[in-house]
Design goal:
This protein is α+β, with helices and mostly antiparallel strands. The protein has helices at 21-33, 47-58, 69-80, 100-108, 144-153, 172-184, 215-227, 251-257, 298-307, 327-337, 370-376, 401-407; strands spanning 2-6, 12-15, 62-64, 84-89, 112-115, 124-128, 134-139, 161-166, 189-193, 196-199, 234-240, 260-264, 273-279, 287-290, 312-315, 343-345, 349-352, 386-389, 411-415. The protein has twelve helices and 19 strands.
Length: 417
Amino acid sequence: MQYSIIPPSSINTTISLPASKSICNRALVINALAKGTRMPDNLSDCDDTQVIVKALNEMPPTIDIKAAGTAMRFMTAYLAVTAGEHTITGTERMLHRPIQVLVNALRYLGADVSYLGEEGFPPLHIRGKQLEGGKVELPGNVSSQYISALLMIGPVLKNGIELTLTDTVISRPYIDLTIHLMHDFGAKVTWTDVRTIKAEPGGYTLRPFLIENDWSAASYWYEMMALCKDYSSEVRLTGLCDGSRQGDSGMRYLFSMLGVKTIFSEMQSGVPTTVTLKKLRVNLPRLDFDFINQPDMVQTFVVCCALKNIPFHFTGVGSLKIKETNRIEALKTEMRKLGYVIRDVDGKELLWDGERCEPSLAPIDTYDDHRMAMAFSPAAFLFPGLRINNPHVVSKSYPHFWQHLEQAGFVIQQTEE
């Protein structure tokens, strides 16, 4: 399937964003570890969350988490401490995403986890049991999801868990989000120094829990506002919090430099409210930024900055190679179709110095990566009729993305590939 996107001349709409899958997936696992029978409120209907809901509700012998990386990491740890015998698998791409760091740590704690295929990769066979817990050392520069997966099971281990992180810690806001959610459910967990986190034994306390909407999803509306030419445009986004624990909420400060103002209807910290986006007249000559804490925002800012003719140098992007696709190579390839020559440095940095090439305007490939589809869609403001291949990939995190674009005045046409 292929969509052709024709943008409106201006935007004035209210969007009910999806719930944060980062919060959903953590809250679901913690709630299950607390033996909860009631699901958290405002669960997302995205693929990544629904595979965890299905797995927890049914607990079948073979659990297929499809393309959900968080589900693979979190459910692996959960199954290791939950009575029963299970196989966990996923899509072909998932079977090539590394998981050895997490498996090694679980085995060190005494877990019974074995590989059914290539060493270091899913699928896994897991026999769940009570684990003693204790001290574990693991690298902090691979995936924060390994750390979060281990932390969440910490309170149900006999002796808790103490994680010492070697190397540079990436995506720390996601680790802090995990810790905050564990606190919300009564766990005792804290950073004891800059590289050590300790979760005390004692389990969790059940409580009603309302999930905030998704700041990562909001970023695409910020991008649309940044690229839209009409300064009277306005977008209202529901269910977001001032002082949000989501790491990607920080992108609103970057977007203020790209001409998008954020206005909260209510300023009470932690209370979901409506955020209004307005356009500002700014002229940013260049953007240099370290995305080590917000790697999922890289695609959005690469597309947005280049199309606004703002040279950039982005560091902290090394983890993009092991996401749903190799996002570094995907960005370089697809941006050339629009006439922009993006370069990388050792797969750890991305930069654009203004170099252009002849655009082919060939359809944008999405590589089974939801963020490729959503980050490139706002480019239709500069390239009306932009075509996106396999647009259904947005269901991974934002199933109603295309309907919301139509609500905002975009014309979405299905075309032949």
